[in-house]
């Protein structure tokens, strides 16, 4: 995905503070992408920097940067959106641009998210969806479901375009964190 981003357009990717996030942050820095570190925390659990990360992303958007988010978080459930990306879009006033990718040759890991590792010499399908606008008075749950539905439909379409069986989303739960990415951009 970083290779299809517009050159010269600054983007900050939300990466968890977990040690797996360190690896991801180092990897994407080679593609010229910056990071915002933090993830949501459940009530009663340790603060994982989610509120500070949200503020930094809204600030970045206000300065003309874009932000990239993989909304299923470090623990999932897979392909279930949280309200975080919708809240950022509502606070910043910029749209969510759904983006997905799929490869014809890949390894599917046995992790909770069914993480896919692209293999060399694969055909790639990249799909960008229509902007999703979130007005100040929007119902966050309705917009969260819209983002989740659009990303899951696009992900299935991308998988089928390269001859792969789509990964199934986890069983739905309210406010469950998505397998692909969405950009909040001007």
Tell me the layout of helices and strands:
Elements (H helix, E strand, L loop, with lengths): L10 E5 L3 H11 L4 E4 L12 H13 L3 E4 L14 H9 L3 E8 L2 E3 L7 E3 L5 E5 L11 H22 L19 E4 L2
Parallel strand pairs: 1-2, 1-3
Antiparallel strand pairs: 3-8, 4-7, 4-8, 5-6
Characterise this structure.
- With 186 residues, the chain is α/β, with parallel strands linked by helices.
- It has one domain.
- 30% of the residues lie in helices and 19% in strands.
- It has 4 helices and 8 strands; from the N terminus they run βαβαβαββββαβ.
- It has helices at residues 19-29, 50-62, 84-92, 140-161; strands at residues 11-15, 34-37, 66-69, 96-103, 106-108, 116-118, 124-128, 181-184.
- A 6-stranded mixed β-sheet has the order 2-1-3-8-4-7, with helices on both faces.
- A hairpin with a 7-residue loop joins strand 5 and strand 6 (116-118).
- Helix 2 packs parallel to helix 3 (84-92).
- It is globular.
- The two termini are 18 Å apart.
Helix and strand composition category: alpha/beta
Number of domains: 1
Helix percentage: 25-40%
Order of helices and strands: EHEHEHEEEEHE
Shape: globular
Based on DSSP secondary structure assignment, what is the total number of beta strands?
Answer: 8
The strand line-up of the biggest sheet is 2-1-3-8-4-7
């Amino acid at each position: 995905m970083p290779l299809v981003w517009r050159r010269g357009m600054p983007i900050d990717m939300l990466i968890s503070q977990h040690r797996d996030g360190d690896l991801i942050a180092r990897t994407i820095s080679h593609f010229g992408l910056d990071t915002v570190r933090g993830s949501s925390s459940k009530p009663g659990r340790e603060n994982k920097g989610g509120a500070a990360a949200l503020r930094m992303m809204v600030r970045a958007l206000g300065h003309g940067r874009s932000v990239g988010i993989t909304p299923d978080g470090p623990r999932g459930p897979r392909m279930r959106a949280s309200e975080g990306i919708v809240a950022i879009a509502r606070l910043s006033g910029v749209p969510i641009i759904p983006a997905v990718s799929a490869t014809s040759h890949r390894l599917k890991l046995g992790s909770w998210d069914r993480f896919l590792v692209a293999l060399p010499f694969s055909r790639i399908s990249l799909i960008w969806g229509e902007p999703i606008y979130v007005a100040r008075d929007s119902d966050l749950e309705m917009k969260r479901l819209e983002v989740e539905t659009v990303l899951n439909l696009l992900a299935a379409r991308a998988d089928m375009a390269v001859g792969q069986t789509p990964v199934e989303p986890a069983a739905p739960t309210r406010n469950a964190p998505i397998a692909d990415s969405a950009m909040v951009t001007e």
